[in-house]
Amino acid sequence: MADESLKNKTVKGVIWSAMERLSVQAIFLAITIIMARILSPHDYGLIGLLAIFIEISQALVDSGFGQALIRKQNRTELDNNTMFYFNIVVSSFLYILLWFLAPFVSRFYDNALLCPVMRVISLGVIFNSFGLVQRALLTIKVDFKTQMRSSLIAAIISGIIGVWMAYSGYGIWAIVAQQLVNYGINTSVLWMLTNWRPRLIFSMNSLREMFSFGSKLVASSILNTIYNNIFQIIIGKVFSPSSLGHYTRAKQFADFPSANLAGIMQRVTFPVLCELQNDDGRLREAYIRTLRMIVFIIFPLMCGLAGTAHPLVSVILGEKWNFCATLLSIICFSFMWNPVHSLNLNLLQVKGRSDLFLKLEIYKKIIGILTIAVSIPFGVEAMCYSTIIHTIICLWLNTYYTRKLIGVGFIMHIKQIAPIFVVCIIMTFILFVFQMFIKDNVICLLISIIFGTTFYITLSYMLKFKEISELSSIIKNIRNR
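Given the sequence above, the corresponding C-alpha cells read:
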C-alpha cells in the first residue's frame, strides 16, 4: 500500500512537473525562435558572454540550500526563515559584486555594451532569491501545479514584452527585458499563490546544519556552471560572438528535451526517493525503474533531434543559422546523457553524500577541461565532439558510487540502456539518409518525424520494452484525472 501511494505521488508529480517545465520551455522556445528571426547571432552571442557570471550567482543563491531544506525530514518554520534571509543577503552581495565586475568583463571582451547590460541583467539574481523558500516548500509537497501557474504567467508576459521590444529595434535589450520580467513576475505570482510568509526569526544553528549539506552542493553547482560555460568563454574570446550565438542557440534546442527531462526527474525523484533513503532494496528497484524510463523517453528524442537538426533549424530559424544546425547534430549525442547523470547524482543527495557529489564534480571537470583544451585548435565542431567523450567518462565515474551505495554500477547501467540505445542509433542513421535524398526541408522534416516516431514505437513493441506499457498506464492516469 505504501509503494502504491508512493507511485501515485510520483506519477502526479511527474505529470505536473512535466506540464510546468515543458509548457513554459515551449513558450520560451517559441519566443526565442521569433526573436532569433529578428535579432542576430551576434546579439545572442553577447548575452552568452555574460551567462557564466549570472549562472554562478544563481548557483550560489539557490542550488544547494533549497535542496538542503527539501531533504531535511524535521524542518521547522525557523529553518524556512533562516534560508529566506540568508539567500537575500547572499544575492544582494552578489549583485554588488557583479556591478563592480561589469567594467572588467567589458574590457576583457573589448565590448563597451557589456557593462550596462551586465549591471541590469544581474538584477535577476535578487528577484529569484525572494522565491526560493516558496519553491522549496511546494517541491516538498510535490506541488508542481502551483509552480506551473506562476511560471506560465511569467513566460507569457515576458515573452510578449521581449518580442515587442525586438520588433521595436531594441536589439540586445529585448533579451535582457524578457529575462528580467520573467524573473520578477514568476516570484511575484509565487507569493500570491502560496500562503507562506517570512517572519523575523533567524537561527545560526539552523544555518550551520543546512550549510554543511548545502554548501557542498553549491560548490558542485558552481564547478558545473563554470565548466558548462567554458564553451561560451572560449568561443566568444577565441572565435567570435557570432559563433557563440550559433552555439547558444544549438544548446537551447538540445536543452529543451534534455535539461527539461533532467529537471523534471530531479525535482520529482528527489523528494520521493528521500522517503526510501533507509531502504536500499526498494531504493535500488525504484532507481533502476526510473533509469530505464528516463532513457526510454530521452534517447529517441535526442537522437531524433540530431537526425533532423538541419531541416529543423532551416525551417524554424532560416538559412543564416545553418552552423547552429551542424553544432546541434553533434551535441545532442552528449546532452542525451544529462538526465542519466542527474539521476546518478540525485542518489548521492538522497543518501546524504554531498561530499561524494563534490568530489565527483571536481574529477569530472578536470577531465572535461583537458578534453576541451585538446580540441580547441581544431575548431568549434571539435569542441562539441569532445563533450561526447567526456560524458561517457562521467557516466563511468558517477556509476562507481551508485555501485557502492546500492549495487548498480557501470555494467548494470549499460545492460539497462543498451537495447534502447541501439534502436535509437539505427533510427538516427535512417534519418540522416533521408536528408541525402529529400532536398525540401519542410517535407524532409515531416517525413523524418513521422518515420522516426513510428519506427521507435513499433520496435519498442516488437522488442517488448516494458516501459511502453508503463507509459500507457501513466497516460491512462492522466486521462482519468
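The two ends are 20 Å apart (CA to CA). Try to locate this feature in the C-alpha cell string yourself.
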